[in-house]
Amino acid sequence: MTTPPPRPLRSPGPAARPALHPRNRHQGHYDFARLVQAWPTLSTHLVTTPRGDTSIDFGDPMAVRALNRAILRCDYRIQHWDLPDGALCPPIPGRADYLHGVADLLAGSAGDAIPRGAAVRVLDVGVGASCIYPLLGHAEYGWHFVGSDIQPTSLQVAAAIVTANGLDRAITLRRQPHRSDIFRGVLLPDERFDATVCNPPFHASADEARGVHQRKRRQLAGRRPAQAGPVVAASATNFGGHAHELWCAGGEAEFLRRMVRDSVEVQAQVLWFTSLVARAEHLSGLRRQLRLAGAVDVREVAMAQGSKQSRFVAWTFLDADRRAAWRSGAR
Asked: Where is this region: Disordered (predicted)?
């Protein structure tokens, strides 16, 4: 099967509705028969919608975790994966879409050929207990990852997943010792990364995160299981999350501000910095800050995140010549 070419990196017009990336394995509805074969426990969570489709109850955390286990086994060769109760359980199609977009971004600096293999190094800022980006990125492209997090418990759970799947050589985990820092304290001197990825906490306080979570659960309780749909139609807020995964002082905007600030300090060590941006109203301020910081290229890439439109923003401080020379190791 031929690999589809990289998707153009551009911002769609106001009326455009992004679809899943053409390389995303999760187009359309899931084959639940195949998923149940990989993880039989999933069968206990299946429901039938009024249209006669098979789905799960996305308001049930156990059902979502069982679905993820089945997907990871079927499509990504991840045999062992589990999370503590209440931990952020990521919607895999959206997480995979982000990585495919990053692969296209890297291809633009590599003669339009998507870089694969261990020579490609990616830093996952806020790797979380699920370790989802390193798992997917290594399975799809063979990339090597460093995952950072401020929470020792999350790192312990992620480390158990990495070890159980024999991925210790491909995935390294590091603790970020300072809550106010993003890259400082994690990157080693002269260490280089082809890209960074991040799913920032988007609430500004624990109360705000709790309130949104409670409202969402009330909405789900009023309509399940009749309107349960495929995972690509489920909101990202259906997937739980501990407080540190969902909020930080100042919310998403402040987190992104700190990320840009820290990226200036390590600008020569990273080819492309990237981050998901959940709220479109934060884009104008982010563009302005990146311009003032001296970023020479900034991209906004629209993505399909269920019924919500999402995007990631990428920036680099390296001009076109330095980006072209990156793979050779030249600075």
From this structure: 1-24, 206-229
